[in-house]
Amino acid sequence: MKKQTVLRLILALAILLLVIQFFRPDANRTTTSSSAAIEKVYPVSEEVQGILKQSCYDCHSNNTTYPWYSNIQPLGWWLQNHIIEGKQELNFDEFGNYDQKKQKHKLQELIEVVDNGEMPLGSYTIIHRSARLSPDEKDKLISWAQNIRRM
Asked: Is there a domain that residue 70 lies in?
């Protein structure tokens, strides 16, 4: 490639990156607490609620705490897609809207993915180190979910 062609390509890419900064996804934030939130349907201790907020809610609730890099596109789009997929899989703020069978199934899935170390995702905990679950936190979440399943 000629030097001039490479420069044009770099310039075009820079302009494209600048333009896409104006196309941002909607934020996953609500101002009110859902009446279907899991803590309004089932008993959730403060300790378990803290674990859920710290390690799960950014992707599995209607309220995400966004990192600084979410303002940079296309990273913001990637994060938004990840949040949408996470909420489709399990949304703690809509848990009470699930039928009983689905609630039990989602709790069983929670038990399995936490026990297997599949959640929270490694790609999430690389940057959000506080979201990593200690063995004690895993045990508490699993025990809580098992107790809820028995209700």
From this structure: yes
**Is 113 in contact with 119 (CB distance < 8 Å)?**
yes
pTM greater than 0.90: no
Which among 84, 35, 78 is positioned nearest to 58, based on CA atoms? 84
The verdict on residue 32 lying in a domain is yes
Nearest by Cα to 78 from 67, 62, 92? 67
pLDDT given for residue 113 in this prediction: 95
The greatest distance separating any two alpha carbons of the chain, rounded to the nearest whole angstrom, comes to 70
- 109 in a domain, yes or no? yes
**Per-range mean pLDDT, top range of 18-22, 77-81, 98-102:** 98-102
State residue 1's pLDDT score.
63
Whether residue 8 lies inside any domain: the answer is no
- The string of DSSP codes covering 66-133 is --GGGGSTTHHHHHHHHHHHHHHH--GGGGGGS-HHHHHHHHHHHHHHHHTT-SS-HHHHTT-GGGSP
Question: Could you list the residue range(s) of the whole structural domain that residue 119 is in?
Answer: 25-150
Give how many domains the chain has, as a whole number: 1
